[in-house]
Amino acid sequence: MSQPDTPHRAAGRSDAPQGIANLSDIINHVIDVAKGDFVSVRDVIRSIGNASFAPMLLLPAVAVATPLSGIPFFSSIMGIVIFLVSIQMLLNRRHLWLPAWLLRRTVKGHIVRDAFAYLRPSARWIDARMNRRIQILVHRPFVFIPQLLCTVSGAMMPLMEFVPFSSSVLGVGVALLALGMVTRDGIVVLIGLLPYALIGWLITNTAA
Protein backbone atom coordinates (compact mmCIF):
# COMPACT_ATOMS: atom_id res chain seq x y z
CA MET A 1 0.00 0.00 0.00
CA SER A 2 1.33 3.45 -0.83
CA GLN A 3 0.81 7.00 0.61
CA PRO A 4 -1.95 10.80 0.83
CA ASP A 5 -2.35 14.64 1.27
CA THR A 6 -4.94 16.53 3.30
CA PRO A 7 -7.29 15.24 6.00
CA HIS A 8 -10.85 14.45 5.05
CA ARG A 9 -13.87 15.34 7.15
CA ALA A 10 -17.19 13.69 6.41
CA ALA A 11 -20.42 14.63 8.05
CA GLY A 12 -21.98 11.73 9.83
CA ARG A 13 -24.20 10.61 12.66
CA SER A 14 -25.04 7.20 14.01
CA ASP A 15 -27.90 6.53 11.58
CA ALA A 16 -27.47 5.54 7.95
CA PRO A 17 -27.69 8.23 5.26
CA GLN A 18 -29.95 8.04 2.26
CA GLY A 19 -28.48 5.66 -0.33
CA ILE A 20 -26.57 3.61 2.27
CA ALA A 21 -29.16 1.34 3.86
CA ASN A 22 -27.55 -2.09 3.82
CA LEU A 23 -24.47 -4.19 3.09
CA SER A 24 -25.10 -4.35 -0.67
CA ASP A 25 -25.05 -0.55 -0.88
CA ILE A 26 -21.61 -0.44 0.75
CA ILE A 27 -20.25 -3.14 -1.58
CA ASN A 28 -21.65 -1.47 -4.71
CA HIS A 29 -20.12 1.89 -3.73
CA VAL A 30 -16.69 0.30 -3.29
CA ILE A 31 -16.83 -1.64 -6.57
CA ASP A 32 -17.85 1.50 -8.46
CA VAL A 33 -15.00 3.58 -7.07
CA ALA A 34 -12.39 0.83 -7.60
CA LYS A 35 -12.62 0.90 -11.40
CA GLY A 36 -9.21 2.56 -11.78
CA ASP A 37 -5.76 1.00 -11.48
CA PHE A 38 -5.50 2.04 -7.83
CA VAL A 39 -8.01 3.06 -5.18
CA SER A 40 -7.19 5.01 -2.03
CA VAL A 41 -8.87 5.07 1.37
CA ARG A 42 -9.91 8.66 0.57
CA ASP A 43 -11.53 7.56 -2.73
CA VAL A 44 -13.62 4.92 -1.02
CA ILE A 45 -14.74 7.22 1.78
CA ARG A 46 -15.63 9.97 -0.69
CA SER A 47 -17.70 7.48 -2.69
CA ILE A 48 -20.00 7.15 0.30
CA GLY A 49 -20.42 10.93 0.45
CA ASN A 50 -21.79 12.44 3.65
CA ALA A 51 -22.18 8.97 5.13
CA SER A 52 -22.80 8.36 8.80
CA PHE A 53 -20.35 6.75 11.17
CA ALA A 54 -21.92 3.27 11.05
CA PRO A 55 -21.41 2.78 7.26
CA MET A 56 -17.89 4.19 7.66
CA LEU A 57 -17.31 1.52 10.31
CA LEU A 58 -18.88 -1.26 8.26
CA LEU A 59 -16.69 -0.58 5.23
CA PRO A 60 -13.21 -1.41 6.68
CA ALA A 61 -14.68 -4.27 8.72
CA VAL A 62 -16.02 -5.92 5.58
CA ALA A 63 -12.69 -5.31 3.83
CA VAL A 64 -10.79 -7.08 6.62
CA ALA A 65 -13.18 -10.03 6.38
CA THR A 66 -12.16 -10.55 2.71
CA PRO A 67 -8.91 -12.00 1.27
CA LEU A 68 -7.60 -8.41 1.25
CA SER A 69 -6.53 -9.06 4.85
CA GLY A 70 -3.67 -11.14 3.40
CA ILE A 71 -2.04 -7.99 1.94
CA PRO A 72 0.86 -6.87 4.18
CA PHE A 73 -0.22 -4.12 6.60
CA PHE A 74 -3.74 -3.96 5.13
CA SER A 75 -5.32 -5.32 8.31
CA SER A 76 -3.32 -2.86 10.41
CA ILE A 77 -4.50 0.10 8.35
CA MET A 78 -8.13 -1.06 8.39
CA GLY A 79 -7.81 -1.67 12.13
CA ILE A 80 -6.67 1.92 12.62
CA VAL A 81 -9.65 3.14 10.57
CA ILE A 82 -12.03 1.00 12.66
CA PHE A 83 -10.47 2.30 15.87
CA LEU A 84 -10.67 5.96 14.82
CA VAL A 85 -14.24 5.70 13.54
CA SER A 86 -15.59 3.75 16.51
CA ILE A 87 -13.89 5.90 19.15
CA GLN A 88 -15.36 9.01 17.53
CA MET A 89 -18.76 7.28 17.65
CA LEU A 90 -18.23 6.72 21.38
CA LEU A 91 -17.42 10.41 21.79
CA ASN A 92 -20.60 11.28 19.83
CA ARG A 93 -18.71 13.47 17.36
CA ARG A 94 -20.74 15.07 14.57
CA HIS A 95 -17.98 14.82 11.93
CA LEU A 96 -15.51 12.07 11.17
CA TRP A 97 -11.80 12.90 11.03
CA LEU A 98 -9.09 10.66 9.58
CA PRO A 99 -5.40 11.60 9.21
CA ALA A 100 -4.05 12.46 5.77
CA TRP A 101 -1.39 9.73 5.75
CA LEU A 102 -4.12 7.14 6.25
CA LEU A 103 -6.37 8.55 3.52
CA ARG A 104 -3.51 8.35 0.98
CA ARG A 105 -3.06 4.59 1.31
CA THR A 106 -3.86 2.76 -1.91
CA VAL A 107 -4.60 -0.77 -3.14
CA LYS A 108 -4.78 -2.07 -6.72
CA GLY A 109 -8.29 -1.51 -8.05
CA HIS A 110 -8.81 -4.98 -9.52
CA ILE A 111 -7.93 -6.64 -6.20
CA VAL A 112 -10.54 -4.54 -4.39
CA ARG A 113 -13.16 -5.15 -7.09
CA ASP A 114 -12.65 -8.91 -7.04
CA ALA A 115 -12.72 -9.14 -3.25
CA PHE A 116 -15.94 -7.13 -2.88
CA ALA A 117 -17.65 -8.67 -5.93
CA TYR A 118 -17.15 -12.06 -4.30
CA LEU A 119 -19.27 -10.83 -1.38
CA ARG A 120 -22.24 -9.67 -3.49
CA PRO A 121 -24.34 -12.90 -3.34
CA SER A 122 -23.82 -13.21 0.42
CA ALA A 123 -24.65 -9.52 0.89
CA ARG A 124 -27.97 -9.91 -0.95
CA TRP A 125 -28.86 -12.93 1.18
CA ILE A 126 -28.03 -11.05 4.38
CA ASP A 127 -29.86 -7.87 3.36
CA ALA A 128 -33.04 -9.83 2.57
CA ARG A 129 -33.14 -10.94 6.20
CA MET A 130 -32.51 -7.56 7.82
CA ASN A 131 -35.31 -5.89 9.76
CA ARG A 132 -35.68 -3.23 12.44
CA ARG A 133 -35.80 -5.42 15.55
CA ILE A 134 -34.96 -4.70 19.19
CA GLN A 135 -33.93 -1.18 18.19
CA ILE A 136 -33.16 -0.28 21.81
CA LEU A 137 -29.79 -2.03 21.29
CA VAL A 138 -28.73 0.46 18.59
CA HIS A 139 -29.50 3.54 20.68
CA ARG A 140 -27.77 5.00 23.70
CA PRO A 141 -26.85 3.80 26.23
CA PHE A 142 -26.89 0.19 24.95
CA VAL A 143 -25.14 1.08 21.67
CA PHE A 144 -22.03 1.87 23.73
CA ILE A 145 -21.41 -1.89 24.01
CA PRO A 146 -20.95 -2.62 20.26
CA GLN A 147 -19.12 0.68 19.79
CA LEU A 148 -16.66 -0.17 22.56
CA LEU A 149 -16.11 -3.69 21.18
CA CYS A 150 -15.39 -2.21 17.75
CA THR A 151 -12.88 0.22 19.29
CA VAL A 152 -11.04 -2.61 21.05
CA SER A 153 -11.13 -4.79 17.91
CA GLY A 154 -9.64 -2.02 15.77
CA ALA A 155 -6.84 -1.48 18.30
CA MET A 156 -6.04 -5.21 18.31
CA MET A 157 -5.83 -5.70 14.53
CA PRO A 158 -2.34 -4.17 14.07
CA LEU A 159 -1.10 -6.51 16.83
CA MET A 160 -2.45 -9.52 14.90
CA GLU A 161 -0.75 -8.50 11.64
CA PHE A 162 1.83 -11.29 11.79
CA VAL A 163 -0.77 -14.06 12.11
CA PRO A 164 -2.16 -14.33 8.53
CA PHE A 165 -5.93 -13.78 8.26
CA SER A 166 -6.39 -13.83 12.05
CA SER A 167 -7.75 -10.28 11.91
CA SER A 168 -10.54 -11.57 9.67
CA VAL A 169 -12.22 -13.06 12.76
CA LEU A 170 -12.34 -9.65 14.40
CA GLY A 171 -13.38 -8.15 11.07
CA VAL A 172 -16.44 -10.42 10.98
CA GLY A 173 -17.37 -9.39 14.53
CA VAL A 174 -17.04 -5.67 13.75
CA ALA A 175 -18.90 -6.10 10.44
CA LEU A 176 -21.87 -7.72 12.20
CA LEU A 177 -21.98 -5.04 14.89
CA ALA A 178 -21.68 -2.25 12.33
CA LEU A 179 -24.30 -3.86 10.07
CA GLY A 180 -26.69 -4.02 13.01
CA MET A 181 -26.15 -0.30 13.61
CA VAL A 182 -26.58 0.58 9.92
CA THR A 183 -29.83 -1.38 9.55
CA ARG A 184 -31.01 -0.68 13.14
CA ASP A 185 -31.38 -4.41 13.68
CA GLY A 186 -30.68 -5.33 17.31
CA ILE A 187 -30.78 -9.04 16.47
CA VAL A 188 -27.72 -8.60 14.24
CA VAL A 189 -25.96 -6.74 17.05
CA LEU A 190 -26.64 -9.68 19.37
CA ILE A 191 -25.28 -12.11 16.77
CA GLY A 192 -22.22 -9.85 16.45
CA LEU A 193 -21.57 -10.32 20.17
CA LEU A 194 -21.19 -14.10 19.77
CA PRO A 195 -17.61 -14.10 18.37
CA TYR A 196 -16.51 -11.99 21.35
CA ALA A 197 -18.29 -14.29 23.79
CA LEU A 198 -16.50 -17.25 22.18
CA ILE A 199 -13.12 -15.51 22.41
CA GLY A 200 -13.79 -14.70 26.09
CA TRP A 201 -14.76 -18.31 26.75
CA LEU A 202 -11.61 -19.62 25.05
CA ILE A 203 -9.39 -17.22 27.01
CA THR A 204 -11.05 -18.15 30.29
CA ASN A 205 -10.74 -21.89 29.67
CA THR A 206 -7.15 -21.60 28.43
CA ALA A 207 -6.13 -19.69 31.55
CA ALA A 208 -7.92 -22.11 33.88
UniProtKB/TrEMBL annotation:
Entry's transmembrane regions: 71-91, 137-156, 162-179, 186-204
Superkingdom classification of source: Bacteria
Database matches in InterPro entries: ExoD (IPR010331)
Keywords recorded for this protein, A-Z: Membrane, Transmembrane, Transmembrane helix
A UniProt-annotated Pfam family: ExoD
Classification via PANTHER family: EXOPOLYSACCHARIDE SYNTHESIS PROTEIN
UniProt protein name: Exopolysaccharide biosynthesis protein
Organism: Yoonia algicola
